[in-house]
Amino acid sequence: MSKMDNSRRLFIGAGAAATAGLVIAPGVTLLDLAHARPADEAASSAKRWGMLIDSSKCATGCNDCVAACGKENGVASTGHPETDPQWIRKVELKEIKTGTSHSLPMMCQHCAEPPCVDVCPTGASFKRADGIVLVDRHICIGCRYCMMACPYKARSFVHEEHEDQNPDVPRGKGCVESCTLCVHRIDRDQQPACVESCKEGAMLFGDLNDPNSEISKRIATYATTQVRADLGLNTGVRYQGI
Amino acid sequence: MSNPAKRRSVLGWLGAALAAVLLAGALPAGAHDEHGDHKVIAKGDKCVEDAAYMRRNHMKLLKHQRDETMHKGIRTTQYSLKNCIECHANPKTGSVASSKEDFCMGCHTYAAVKLDCFECHSTKPKAAGGTLHPIVAPSVQPEGTDKQSSLSGKMRWQMQANLASLNGGEGVK
């Protein structure tokens, strides 16, 4: 009997090791071991969600993150490219003298000091306790001050009526919207759709407040950049290699 | 006793009692009530609260839940709009608000109350074969419990209505 118990224990131990061991290389895990937040618990400032984008891995011409975002959030072309909402876009950077080029995705940087929140006259633009900057469409009056204030041009106004939205991502005419960091997925302990779709592994999502998270370790080890760091906004999205 | 304010409140009570008695007559699983046959309740035998309570207060529950979810990330399902749609979507249209027979539009058209939830929110459940809320799922309920609970709900309403009318009677004298 005791022998049987022992073998079962060993088996369980091996299973746990296999689950925990989705390790690609030392220090690089495929999945951060999830600490599920119960559905009835509010998001807390103990976490600060952020993203690290390695532009040296980001492939020129690859649009996977943009496509995945569109599919997840229902952001599709309405046939009016000038006014189509844009949650994430690919940006090509080129050094004129040397001709070196970089490619990177640009979206809401989820600032710790978001200018969009400062200027919002109704309180619709807000920062959640865990650092995700969102628009409450119930309160948004569509004045577009936040679009003016954002240095990253991350926000869009919805000009067209929408149907058949993803039930997790309500969207409609007359409000401003932007990247939500896939907040509905984060609350289910999933990664944002863009991060999941990146075949190059150029995007890393995690908790900036946890010194043991993969993203914090990378930021502590490598030189990373905040776009327009001069503005002192303390962005949640960081870049490597630009 | 001849105070007009008091008399008004008494009349209010009588009105409430009358409404309560009328509402108590409507069974939650039935697709018709005193206002006629104008909506479809697709799944389950029992709502997350009494049907009568839901008729009066669904908007308060939804609004509270909406702020909790949006600002705090609390995603409990009991009072979430998504969960309402999960059960109440019309099997014919797959929606709660695409036709006048659909659940939300049934009453809202009758009562001439415009609702703008669905200018942004989807009127359809996420995917076919979605799960019911545990307290609504028939498999979780032992047989007969649903009828009992709706009966108890009815009795509670009737008792409240009787009490109200008693108080009202005293007030009038």
How do the strands and helices of this protein lay out in sequence?
The complex is a heterodimer of chains A (about 240) and B (about 170).
Chain A: H1 2-20, E1 23-25, E2 28-29, E3 49-54, H2 64-73, E4 88-94, E5 101-107, H3 115-119, E6 125-127, E7 133-135, H4 145-149, E8 156-157, E9 176-177, H5 183-186, H6 193-197, E10 203-207, H7 214-221, E11 224-225, E12 237-240
Parallel strand pairs in A: 3-12
Antiparallel strand pairs in A: 1-2, 3-10, 4-5, 6-7, 8-9, 11-12
Chain B: H1 4-24, H2 51-72, H3 81-88, H4 103-111, H5 145-172
Helix pairs in contact in B: 1-5
Provide an overview of this structure.
The complex is a heterodimer of chains A (242) and B (173). In chain A, strand 6 and strand 7 form a beta hairpin. The longest helix of chain A is centred in the first third of the chain and has 19 residues, at 2-20. Chain A is of the alpha+beta class. In chain A, strands 10-3-12-11 form a four-stranded mixed β-sheet. A two-stranded antiparallel ribbon of chain A has the order 1-2. A two-stranded antiparallel ribbon of chain A has the order 4-5. Chain A is built from seven helices and twelve strands. Chain A has two domains: 1-31; 44-240, Alpha-Beta Plaits, CATH 3.30.70. Chain A is globular. By secondary structure, chain B is mainly alpha-helical. Chain B has one domain (27-156). In chain B, 51% of the residues lie in helices and 0% in strands. Chain B has helices at 4-24, 51-72, 81-88, 103-111, 145-172. In chain B, helix 1 runs antiparallel to helix 5 (145-172). Mean pLDDT of chain B is 70; it is low at 18-31, 129-134, 137-154 and 168-173. At the A-B interface, loops of A face helix 2 of B.
